[in-house]
Amino acid sequence: MRVNTGEKMLTNEEREMVRDLILLPYIDTMVAKSLKEVEHSGNVLSRSYILAGRYIQKRIVQDVYQLRQALKQRNIKVVEDTQDDFITYSMIYYRGYQERFGITRDVMRTEISLRLTRYTADLGEALRGQL
Predict the structure, then answer these.
(1) Domain boundaries, the chain
(2) Is the pLDDT at 7 greater than 80, yes or no?
């Protein structure tokens, strides 16, 4: 084992992976809630919305799995810690260290919005490929 301290600290890429792993369950919950609303809406396009929502949920599950595998390979474990009105905290255990990681509600909203936009764009690309 090398003693280079630079290798022991979390990289920016790893921090982004941790952030995404924390955010994805929130996104999944939001999509699930929207799907329930659509199911009961009686909307003419509800079947299409449900299919789109399930596609996004499937992508979220795939992303969570890939993130967990990548973090496991890097010997990084993320555990939900506490939550107050403005910040969600998680504990990160990595390479013999631990760190408390916090995300503010505003950052979460922005990141969730960006991520949902990406998932929707991916759905659009998949549909274009089928037409």
Answers:
(1) 11-121
(2) no
